[in-house]
Amino acid sequence: MFSYYFTLGVRSLRRNPALTALMVLTLAIGVAASVSTLTILHVMSANPIPHKSDRLFVPLVDNGSPENWVPSEGPNDRQLSYPDADNLLRSGVGERRTVMYNVGVAIEPPRSDIPAFSSTGLAPTRDFFAMFDVPFLHGQPWSAADDQRAADVVVLSREIAEKLFGDASPVGKQVRMKGTPYTVVGVIDTWAPLPRFYKLIGGQRFGNGEEFFIPFSNAIRHEMVHNGSMSCSGSRDPGWAALLASECTWLQFWIEAKSSSDRAEVQSFLDSYANEQRKLGRLKRNAPNMLYNVMEWMEEMKVVGNDSKLAAWLAFGFLVLCLVNTVGLLLAKFSVRASEVGIRRALGASRRDVFQQFLIETGVVGLVGGVLGLVLAFAFLALIGMQSKGMAAVARMDLQMLALTFLMSVAAALLAGLLPTWRACQVTPAIQLKSQ
């Protein structure tokens, strides 16, 4: 019986083409608008590293000045000072640790046909690559010994490696950066976690990643200027050494534990470390020491902002408005078929049979609206992606959202069709037969 009613639903689309087209278009626009915003929200809030997100932690100790501090205002900054980062790096806490900051340098290509160009990269420790599952196309990360001796080594992105050396492996070759020859030890493959959770402070949270990686100790040795945000609660002396000794916060730190159950152990260590530093006259605010896993860190940094959530609610509000209009159009469509319903009822069809038939017809409308809505959603996402590289990275639909588009369209049509279908079932056969 379902296949028969479905066939009737397909045929009914041709009865009043103008009214049917208006219903399908109204439903498609509402579904496309809501799915587009929901797709962006889905990508932005997705777990970027689900298999270990509960054992990767960002530690924070508040080293701000106690003057005029209100505890409800939260920590001084969401980064660490060099003394704290260096102490945590040497502590041995967790299975892996990495500290990082953004750097920008001029690269002098080995090829004469390419002029020097500026490039942005990251200065982490060796553990960075294993912590965040960075894939390698050629070579490997630098060694622990390279970290200790601040070696002039570099890991290139695939894009930069191909620009400088073509398709051949550049491992073992040299490239001059900031006037210093660096030996290439590896090339990472395409790696673009969404969002770039490992470095939410400074730079783009979505879009292209770093173009190169050098050891953190090397960047410190070469006094490479920090390319990002910095917070200093008090004055400091000029110079690189003064920056390293200051309480200015400008470094981002991650700890990887062996399992999520080790969180309490990491927190205990962080509390013990803060207490020791207070005995040395630091961390005078005596604020709580914070530890965030990946998803908590994304929430703390408001990766999904209130404006994105508001846009999603407005889109669903627009969908409700489209459903109200669809209800009116379905009432008009079914009202002209009162005589047909009266004859069917007189021939023995029950109200349940009529309800099933008309509801399946509205499902057919929803299915057609879903196809058109999918096309419009891709168009909307393409327009959104044209705004910036960051938006282009999140404005893409996966299989989950593809299935949701059809499910939402059919569900919306069925919801809109409940009242018109119920009204159609209330037709009195005798009155309709007398009017014929």
TrEMBL record:
Residue intervals passing through the bilayer: 20-43, 310-334, 354-381, 402-422
Main location group: membrane
Cell location: Cell membrane
Top-level lineage group: Bacteria
InterPro entries assigned: ABC3_permease_C, MacB_PCD, Macrolide_Exporter_MacB
Record keywords: Cell membrane, Membrane, Transmembrane, Transmembrane helix
Pfam families the UniProt entry points to: FtsX, MacB_PCD
Bilayer topology: Multi-pass membrane protein
MacB-like periplasmic core domain: residues covered: 20-268
The keyword Cell membrane is annotated on this UniProt entry: yes
Protein name, per record: ABC transporter permease
The species this protein was found in: Massilia phyllostachyos
Ranges of residues in domain ABC3 transporter permease C-terminal: 314-428
